[in-house]
Design goal:
With 336 residues, the chain is an alpha/beta fold. Helix content is 49%, strand content 10%. A seven-stranded parallel β-sheet has the order 3-4-2-1-5-6-7, sandwiched between helices. α7 runs parallel beside α14 and α14 runs antiparallel to α15. The chain starts with a helix and ends in a 6-residue tail after the last helix. This is Family with sequence similarity 118 member A.
């Protein structure tokens, strides 16, 4: 019995933080920023979803398989990806090798490699609970922005008969509509989407292009002032040039903002350093546990709490409501 108890304890998910840490946000006051950690958790069978480096490695492998790159170039790019810190430059060179010399959208082998890497995404969804949590928040007005090139969330939403829509920063009218909250099931891909390689931001010039439009920039920066951003699966997002240009460096008075970031606490020193660094940007860093496996359950609990707090607030705070709330959270029940 004692051994069993110890095992249970070891595998227990840490208790989720209660909504007072999040300031009891209503779903419509939240903006979810989804990073590669979400896609990696939902479809672990696709290495390209795990990180930017994994994505470039997968494209190089596809180019090798499809024989659209000389073996010498393949070896050269493999070496660069493993050694170079500036992956944007590596990506830029890789695309140029497989694309025509002109700047327009002519056929290119890079597009073929992308389709190979991201083929049949719908068949690779192994853990849909994460996507369900996000979709349930969207239903109640939470906006979603992502740095991911994949459309796993949209595929899953369509399977649930929601009118999902993928947007990128080139489609100005749609982005402005989305920023006003008019596209409930719109997902803004600030780096573009793999289905439209010309719109994907993979090199330094692409970064400059997407941050050129002052009206779009202003609309998005207003969101950073008005909404509570909740970063999920976003280990690298805050180092991202577009994200920095859109939000981190342009918006003033960030100390008055309330944004939140869920991270894994692998190392205490790193965790508390990140906490201190992020407060400068108005972002509170919160740990979901010390291993990646805790992440999906934690987000489900959090979604349940946000919804239930809305119910409590709407129906008045009574002992009965509080008991229902505590029971539902402890039982991991989602009442949507």
């Amino acid at each position: 019995g004692e051994k069993m108890d110890k095992m249970k304890k070891k595998n227990q998910v840490p208790p989720p933080f209660f909504p007072n840490v999040l300031g009891n946000p209503q779903p419509q006051e939240l903006l979810l920023v989804i990073g590669t950690g979400v896609s990696a958790a939902v479809a672990p069978g696709i290495p390209a979803l795990c990180s930017w480096r994994s994505c470039i490695e997968a494209i190089i492998e596809a180019a090798d398989q499809l024989e659209v790159l000389h073996p010498g170039d393949v070896a050269d790019f493999r070496h660069k990806v493993s050694k170079d810190r500036d992956l944007l430059v590596v990506a830029h060179d890789l695309i140029r090798k497989m694309s025509p010399r002109t700047g327009d959208a002519k056929p290119n082998f890079f597009q073929d490699c992308l389709m190979e890497v991201f083929d049949n995404l719908d068949q690779h969804i192994q853990h849909p609970a994460l996507l369900l949590s996000i979709l349930q928040l969207m239903e109640r007005g939470t906006m979603v922005l992502t740095t991911n090139y994949d459309n796993l969330l949209e595929i899953f939403g369509q399977q649930q008969h929601r009118a999902m829509e993928s947007l990128d920063l080139k489609d100005k009218d749609k982005v402005l509509q989305w920023a006003k909250g008019h596209l409930r099931y719109g997902v803004l891909h600030i780096h573009g989407l793999y289905t439209d390689p010309c719109g994907m931001v993979l090199d330094p010039s692409g970064y400059q292009e997407v941050t050129q439009d002052p009206e779009v920039m202003e609309a998005l920066q207003n969101l950073y002032r008005r909404k509570s951003f909740l970063f999920v699966g976003c280990g690298e997002t805050l180092r991202d040039q577009i994200f920095q240009a859109l939000f981190l460096y342009m918006v003033k008075n960030k100390v008055e903002l309330e944004h939140y970031m869920l991270v894994r606490k692998e190392n205490e020193d790193q965790f508390f350093k990140l906490q201190a660094d992020m407060l400068v940007h108005g972002i509170k860093v919160v740990s979901y546990g010390d291993c990646f496996e805790h992440f999906p359950g934690y987000l489900q609990d959090l979604t349940a709490q946000i919804y239930l707090w809305v119910t409590v607030l709407r129906n008045g705070y009574s002992t009965h409501n509080r008991q229902s709330f505590d029971y539902a959270v402890s039982s991991n029940i989602l009442i949507f």
